[in-house]
Amino acid sequence: MTATRGFGIDIGGSGIKGALVDLEKGALIGDRLRIDTPRPATPEAVAEVVAKVVRHFAWDGPVGITLPAVIKKGVAHTAANIDPKWIGTDADALFADVLDRRVEDIAMLNDADAAGMAEIRFGDPIARHGVTTLLTFGTGIGSAVFQDGKLVPNTEFGHLEVDGHDAEKKAAASVKDNEGLTYHQWAKRVNRYLTVLENLIWPDLFIVGGGVSKKSEKWVPLLENRTKVIVASLQNNAGIVGAAAAAVEGIEH
After folding, report:
1. What SUPFAM superfamilies does the database record attribute to this sequence (predicted)?
2. Global pTM?
């Protein structure tokens, strides 16, 4: 029998969010819990918060967890907007230990990959055909690329060099807030970033997500790219949903 409920945790540069997930609808069950990401965001400090979130929901099944990092076989190989001590950390083993689970019951994924998987499964059916690129705009920029619904894991297109700068240092949603940019000013930067990316990989569709997708009407209509842009249907909950589904199905990259 296929599980109809799962549990996902999305670790970001500013917040750690967790919730129960209805895996038939691709929707959260009840409210999510968000706790600020600790400073510094070391593996031990983050694991402590994750344990607190899981305890809050009294969840005793498999747990899907996202990190803003390249993840291969449960090991973090990069660290974007989290402490560099994550690099080389066996995240599977760390979370299995702190959550008192078997390693097999932990599914570690890159945060944008998890969000993309949720959008492909539960979002607009148009995303399942051709080359689809999901981009999450938050503390940084996460990317997930799909060919006919199949993920190419661990793309790091948020770190493309655009006009001499790491793209996310100019076009992440956090930059808009930190520099006090208007939506028009920030949309120009996003537009420039998308232009560079679309000239590199020629996608058929961009899906834009992250916290700023809740205000999509203020900036998405300002984009002038040739590639069709749609807003993530799960908005900022996509990572949680994708992580929960991965945990139940034993998916890990």
Report:
1. Actin-like ATPase domain (SSF53067)
2. 0.94
Task: Locate 221 and state its tokens.
Answer: 């209509």
Closest to 99 measured CA to CA, from 135, 134, 64, 125: 64
**119 found inside a domain:** no
Which distant-in-sequence residues (6+ apart) come within 8 Å of 94 by Cβ?
Answer: 43, 47
Range of the domain at 219: 125-232
Tokens encoding 72: 């291969």
Average pLDDT of adjacent 10-residue blocks, the chain of 253 residues:
87 96 96 97 98 98 97 96 97 98 96 97 97 96 97 96 97 97 98 98 96 94 98 94 94 74
CATH number of the domain enclosing 98? 3.30.420.40
Query: Domain count of the chain?
Result: 2
Tell me how crowded residue 159 is: count the other CB atoms within 10 A of its CB: 16
